[in-house]
Amino acid sequence: MYLFLAFTFLRALILATIFSVPVFLFKRRISPKIFIIIFLVSFTVLIPLNLEKYFSPNPYIATGYLPGFSKESFQKIQVGMNKSKVEQLIGEGFKNRFSVSPQEGEKSCVLYSFDQDPPFTDFAWMGISVCYNDKEQVTRTVEAPVYD
User: What whole-number distance in Å separates Cα of residue 56 and Cα of residue 105?
Assistant: First the structure.
């Protein structure tokens, strides 16, 4: 949270400086009051714009995968498949970490991806999970954006 506010503050400062250049060029002098007003407006505009966003050109831009996972193998998983067969295809998922809650009749949902944002960005990542019933058979696979 503090890092988010620090980046927002820095961006607002840069924007205020950029917006002050035309004022400086035409007036030859910018008052501190005008600079502070421009900064505050920039800061309040940037806070809602910095919320985590879905990047539609590449929804997987901020998604990291566990070792052994591949999208091709994930596509091969079918409802009713045993957990051991799934683990042969895509490896073991995270323990005690999930992005999807089990639905009625499901014992657990195992997560295979995590948030891995590029520097200075905050994009939604794709939560990739496999859900199982009491017999440890696949009930569904899930690929959904996660906003954290």
Answer: 33
CA pair distance 69, 131, nearest whole angstrom: 16
pLDDT digits (tens, 9 = 90+) for 106-146: 998 999 999 887 666 678 889 999 999 999 999 999 999 98
CA angle 85, 146, 142 (to 5 degrees): 30
Tokens of 128: 């990739």
pTM higher than 0.70, yes or no?
no
Task: Tell me what percent of the residues of the chain surpass a pLDDT of 70.
Answer: 63
Angle, helix 32-49 to helix 2-27, in steps of 10 degrees: 140
Rounded CA-CA distance 51/91 in Å is 32
Which residues pair with residue 140 across a beta bridge? 131
Per-residue tokens: 33: 């009051």
Closest CA to 137 of 110, 97, 112, 101: 110
Q: Does residue 91 come out as left (phi exceeding 0), alpha (psi in the -120 to 50 range) or beta?
A: left
Domain boundaries, the chain: 2-49, 63-146
With left for phi above 0 and alpha for psi between -120 and 50, is residue 105 left, alpha or beta?
Answer: left
The domain 63-146: what is its CATH number?
A: 3.30.1450
